[in-house]
Amino acid sequence: MTYRIRPLGSLPWPSGLGKHGSRYGNLEHELRALLGDDDFWDPEAHRRALVSADPDYRRIVLTELAQLPWSADLADSVDTATALARSSPLLNQPLESERPWLDWAAPHRADYPVWAWLTNGVNASDTLIGDGRHRLTYLRYHRPPEHEVLVRIET
User: Fold this and answer.
1) Which member of 117, 124, 130, 141 has the greatest number of CB atoms within 10 A?
2) For 77-121, what is each residue's pLDDT tens digit?
3) How far apart are CA 135 and CA 147, in angstroms?
4) Would residue 125 be called left, alpha or beta, if left means φ above 0 and alpha means ψ between -120 and 50 degrees?
5) pLDDT-above-70 percentage for the chain
């Protein structure tokens, strides 16, 4: 794994935005109704909906995700975490485990939203989002595609 800073526009798009039986259930239900079952799982359909400024997609995503506890300070926390990560000697270095990164990030635990992004923000590969697809989608509505964020890249 490697922690890197990447532009939002370079990150993969989600394949679906829901989790059965959880607080994301209404989001999934509404997006399935809007996109259809096939397009709900298609990352390109989510990209098109956001890039084309589809008002129904925007309304659904922002209404549902704004109700989650992390939404209020997500954008500022991501920006702070990204700025802090720029000073890390571990940035862009291949790591065999996350332990060195967690140890480096430990002094920032007092600011939980920042620490949470430093240690468990977006986990991705070049083509898939492993964790953070809801937060990444919400963030894309609050920052332009060229905006840089800290990402954990799985290799």
Assistant:
1) 117
2) 999 999 999 999 999 999 999 999 999 999 999 999 999 999 998
3) 15
4) beta
5) 98
Contacts of 76-79 with C-beta under 8 Å, sequence gap 24+, read 76/113, 77/111, 77/113, 77/114, 77/116, 77/117, 78/117, 78/121, 78/139, 78/143, 78/149, 78/150
Helix 25-40 to helix 43-51 angle (10° resolution) is: 110
CA 90 from centre of chain: 21
Q: What is the pLDDT of residues 121-146, one digit of tens each?
A: 899 988 888 889 999 999 999 999 99
SS3 string, the chain, reads CEEEEEEHHHCCCCCCCCCCCCCCHHHHHHHHHHHHHHHHCCHHHHHHHHHCCCHHHHHHHHHHHCCCCCCCCHHHHHHHHHHHHCCCCCCCCCCCCCHHHHHHHHHHCCCHHHHHHHHHCEEECCCCEEECHHHHHHHHCCCCCCCEEEEEECC
| 22 Rama class: left (phi>0) / alpha (psi -120 to 50) / beta | beta
